[in-house]
Amino acid sequence: MGNERNEYNDCILLNYWVYSRLVNIFQSDDASIIAGPFAILQRIWHDIVEKPSYKPRNNKCFPDGTLVTQKDWRERKALYDYCVNYDTIKKTIPSYEKICPEYWSYVDSHTSLFEYFKTRCSKTNDQCPEFYNNCKQYDPKEFLLTFSCNEQMKQKKADTLAKARQALQSSTADVQEQISRITGGSEVSAGGSLLTSDGSHPVEKTELLDLNYSKYNLD
Questions:
Q1: pLDDT for residue 50
Q2: Are residues 117 and 79 in contact, defined by beta-carbon separation less than 8 angstroms?
Q3: Which end of the chain is more exposed for a tag (fewer CB within 10 A), N or C?
Q4: Secondary structure letter of residue 101 according to DSSP
Q5: Per-residue pLDDT for the chain (219 aa), expressed as one digit of tens each?
Q6: Are 19 and 74 in contact (CB under 8 A)?
Q7: Which H or E run includes 179?
Q8: Where are the domains of the chain?
Q9: Using CA atoms, how far apart are residues 154 and 160, in angstroms rounded to an integer?
């Protein structure tokens, strides 16, 4: 991209926003589907920016043609959004304690994303976003330690996870009990199908009942 860069470039945000809209329109980010429309969009975009009448000559925003090759463009967009929001959150939290939990949850939700790029960028620069070097100092784990509500929110998260595990275990136990009731007194035949306690198949039992009933059917 031939853009004059600030520490945080609105052009990057614009590119990801435009690309995400295009993906939504075509319901796919498969290169074989999106590359053609994206190329047309880039040409139109270039024509607009290169016009002499285009006002912001000192900070032109050009389309990023590499987006179509980025398999993890959604993750990159999310990382950049987080990095752009970092300063605002840092400045806001000390003055507005009530929104601390909300911001804590937002930052915490980006911890795994940050680890993903930390690992990816430590192995090779080929698959690392250009803006990563400006973002790597904003590790969510370190940032959360500065939140006044950190301990409270950590405990709340732990309690929520514990309740979720308990609910899952209870649900699993209920399902196993239902299966046990359904298959109670049954064995498995050599062919792998269920047998009732008298050695017959459940289907055979049903067919036998149908036959007995038909003898007395007066219709």
A1: 82
A2: yes
A3: C
A4: H
A5: 444 444 678 899 999 999 999 999 999 999 999 999 999 999 999 888 888 776 665 678 899 999 999 999 999 999 999 999 999 999 999 999 899 999 999 999 999 999 999 999 988 777 899 899 889 999 999 999 999 999 999 999 999 989 898 888 877 777 777 777 776 655 545 555 554 555 555 555 445 445 454 554 555
A6: no
A7: helix 150-182
A8: 1-68, 70-152
A9: 10
Both tokens of 144, joined, read 């959360």
Instruction: Determine the Cα angle at 145 with ends 140 and 150, to 5°.
Output: 100
**pTM given for the model:** 0.69
The residue with tokens 């987006």 is 67
Give kind and range of the element (H or E) at residue 195: strand 194-195
Q: Which of 91, 97, 108 has its CA nearest to residue 158?
A: 108
Q: Which residues have CB under 8 Å from 179's CB, separation 6+?
A: none
Name the β-bridge partners of 195.
187
Output the six-digit token pair for 180.
């046990």
User: What is the Cα gyration radius of the chain?
Assistant: 30
Tokens coding 80: 């950049």
Looking at the DSSP assignment, which residues form a beta bridge with residue 194?
188
For tokens 């915490």, name the residue.
108
Amino acid symbol at 123: K
Report which residue type is found at 36: G
What distances in angstroms separate CA 44 from CA 14, 17, 66, one per listed residue?
15, 16, 17
The pair of three-digit structure tokens given for residue 58, joined into one six-digit string: 């000192």
